């Protein structure tokens, strides 16, 4: 398997709580991988470790963004991870809500642009060209998720489902190689969820690898090529949706003890 | 409505430009207007921290003081030209801003506010106690006024004269203050509508999401601090060469609080708001200073009035008078183009 991301023995401790214990798995380049598990299993914590928000207590995170050897990125700062090509969305939406839809996405171009204080004040030729390019890139990503026409509305005025799409547009605007989606379908109605499935496939079509945390099992089983199952910070299963569905540990984790034999 | 507001703005600007030339002009009014403009610069500078970045800075006056003393000392010891002093004072303010900011900006919330407060008290203590440098509580009197020496232009034009204009009275300072406000306003609006300003606003809105967009939080907070303190020092340099006397008690904590009130009253993160907030609070302070003694109250009770106003504002307009952030962005030609493109797409 050509792995874009390899999580190798990662643990994360919060005081006395082991949110992740010795978790290892690999994410295949160009595929959709699902990260599932009951509430509090440590899924978001895993995202935060990969995205640089948390430094793992132990273990390695190998990222192979471009050509060349994969590098251990455990403990890198979030902005460094973004520059390397890892983007993410948040379980509880984190938009810049006082700003416009467009500005939310323009900020995401930060790591791919370079104008500084003096360029901004003097409005140099290169600064103006860069500003135009930022708008074009932002609009392209907004159109990609279907929010182009709302570009100049306040981000806070969007519906819940659209706010989730805006977060995806913002993440995509950083030009990622790997995108981590934390419960993107949460709070969406069935029609919005359907559109989301199309969007995720379109993201894959752009050559971006997707890792998805999702509670909607039907959705996960349908679109993920591989699944990783966490429970109480421990990886209990890993494999194709069919394999995972048949795994007694998984059934037990989801339905309680004894369910596997029922 | 929009057109009317626009005309009103130009009318006010024309009146402000013409007032010092009118026969009925009043020195006291001119003085208050210059003071308002000094505070406008301060408020625009402070606005960067709580307004754009969401950082509560309670020590802004420290940098105002650093700018004023830099200018005052360079003038009395080296008789340096104001035009040379301005960049030096700004750089010195920014330098101290970075020196204070770099170790402390990793602190969050209240801790950061307390450290900035401590710093400004430290500045006052330094100015009071290091008598060898600052003359201590006596202050520095006799600072030379600003002069504009354009003899080089005369030489260039082949005129054998000394073209030197010394600032006397309030009028030249009034126009210079206007230029200063206009320049700082231009800088701030341009920064607001740029990669830098967007990074700041992202930090204010959600630091974690900002970092995930690639913004180096620490670096951008330090830049914010440097720009903000540089502008504070600019106002200080002007003050020194305008009042011609500076002393440590001009830079007490109260001033930081006053500027913060202006920014909050105008609307955190709104540049126009900072201007309006300064005008309101300084004008009000002057009115109260005259009115309160007539009512048999000591002039100091005006501080109570300030507090009352802030409470009323927080109750009825919790986000200040102007609530829109990133205003200049919406007026940029690129965004106007985009608006037209989107409208065209809708109709198509
Ligand atoms: N910053 C933190 N400090 C302390 N405990 C945390 C922190 N973040 C997560 N946890 C704990 O770690 C466990 C896993 O949380 P999380 O990763 O959010 O679970 P999931 O996303 O799978 O629902 C939970 O018990 C949660 O309370
Ligand atoms: Mg979670």
TrEMBL record, chain A:
Q: Which PROSITE patterns match?
A: ABC_TRANSPORTER_1, ABC_TRANSPORTER_2
* Protein's recorded name: ABC transporter ATP-binding protein
Specify the taxonomic lineage: Bacteria, Pseudomonadati, Thermodesulfobacteriota, Desulfovibrionia, Desulfovibrionales
- Sorted alphabetically, which PANTHER family does this protein's record hold? AMINO ACID ABC TRANSPORTER ATP-BINDING PROTEIN, CONSERVED COMPONENT OF ABC TRANSPORTER FOR NATURAL AMINO ACIDS-RELATED
Which InterPro entries does this one have?
Answer: AAA+_ATPase, ABC_AA/LPS_Transport, ABC_transporter-like_ATP-bd, ABC_transporter-like_CS, BCA_ABC_TP_C, P-loop_NTPase
Question: What SUPFAM superfamilies does this protein map onto?
Answer: P-loop containing nucleoside triphosphate hydrolases
Sequence ranges assigned to domain ABC transporter in this UniProt record: 5-257
What Gene Ontology cellular-component terms does the record carry?
A: plasma membrane
Q: Which UniProt keywords apply?
A: ATP-binding, Nucleotide-binding, Transport
């Amino acid at each position: 398997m050509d792995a874009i991301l390899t999580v190798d023995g990662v643990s994360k401790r919060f005081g006395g709580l082991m949110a992740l214990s010795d978790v290892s798995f690999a994410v295949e380049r160009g595929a959709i991988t699902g990260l599932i598990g009951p509430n509090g299993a440590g899924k978001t914590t895993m995202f935060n470790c990969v995205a640089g928000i948390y430094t793992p207590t132990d273990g390695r995170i190998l990222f192979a963004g471009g050509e060349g050897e994969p590098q251990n990125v455990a403990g890198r700062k979030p902005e460094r991870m973004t520059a390397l090509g890892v983007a993410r969305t948040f379980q509880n939406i984190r938009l810049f809500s006082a700003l416009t839809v467009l500005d939310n996405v323009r900020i995401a171009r930060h790591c791919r642009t370079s104008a500084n204080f003096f360029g901004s004040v003097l409005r140099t030729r290169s600064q103006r060209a860069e500003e135009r390019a930022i708008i074009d890139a932002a609009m392209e990503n907004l159109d990609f998720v279907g929010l182009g026409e709302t570009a100049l509305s306040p981000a806070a005025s969007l519906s819940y489902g659209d706010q989730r799409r805006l977060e995806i547009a913002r993440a995509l605007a950083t030009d990622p190689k790997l995108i981590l989606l934390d419960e993107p379908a949460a709070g969406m109605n069935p029609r919005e969820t359907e559109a989301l499935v199309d969007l995720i496939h379109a993201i894959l079509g752009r050559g971006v690898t997707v890792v998805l945390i999702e509670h909607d099992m039907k959705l996960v089983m349908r679109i993920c090529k591989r699944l990783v199952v966490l429970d109480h910070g421990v990886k209990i299963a890993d494999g194709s949706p069919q394999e995972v569905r048949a795994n007694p540990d998984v059934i037990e984790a989801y339905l309680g003890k004894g369910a596997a034999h029922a | 409505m929009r057109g009317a507001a626009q005309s009103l703005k130009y009318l006010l600007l024309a009146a402000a430009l013409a007032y010092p030339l009118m026969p009925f002009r009043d020195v006291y009014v001119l003085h208050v207007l210059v003071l308002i403009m000094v505070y406008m610069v301060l408020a625009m500078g402070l606005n960067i921290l709580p307004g754009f970045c969401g950082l509560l800075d309670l020590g802004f006056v420290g940098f105002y003081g650093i700018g004023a003393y830099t200018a005052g000392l360079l003038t009395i010891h080296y008789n340096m030209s104001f035009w040379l002093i301005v960049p030096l004072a700004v750089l010195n303010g920014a330098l101290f801003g970075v020196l204070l900011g770099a170790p402390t900006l990793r602190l969050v919330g209240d801790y950061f506010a307390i450290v900035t407060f401590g710093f400004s008290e430290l500045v006052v203590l330094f100015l009071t106690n290091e008598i060898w440098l600052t003359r201590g509580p006596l202050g520095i009197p006799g600072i030379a006024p600003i002069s504009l020496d354009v003899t080089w232009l005369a030489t260039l034009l082949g005129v054998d004269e000394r073209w030197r204009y010394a600032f006397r009275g309030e009028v030249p300072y009034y126009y210079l203050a206007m230029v200063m406000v206009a320049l700082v306003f231009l800088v701030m609006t341009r920064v607001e509508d740029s990669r830098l300003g967007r990074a700041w606003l992202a930090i204010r809105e959600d630091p974690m999401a900002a970092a995930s967009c690639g913004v180096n939080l620490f670096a951008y907070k330090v830049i914010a601090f440097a720009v903000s303190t540089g502008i504070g020092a600019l106002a200080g340099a002007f003050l020194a060469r305008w009042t011609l006397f500076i002393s440590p008690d001009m830079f007490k904590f109260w001033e930081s609080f006053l500027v913060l009130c202006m920014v909050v009253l105008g609307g955190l993160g709104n540049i126009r708001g900072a201007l309006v907030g300064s005008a309101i609070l300084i004008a009000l302070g002057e009115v109260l200073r005259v009115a309160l003694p007539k009512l048999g109250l000591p002039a100091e009770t005006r501080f109570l009035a300030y507090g009352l106003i802030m409470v009323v504002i927080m109750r009825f307009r919790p986000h200040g008078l102007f609530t829109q952030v990133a205003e200049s962005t919406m007026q940029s030609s690129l965004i106007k183009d985009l608006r037209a493109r989107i409208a065209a797409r809708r109709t198509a």
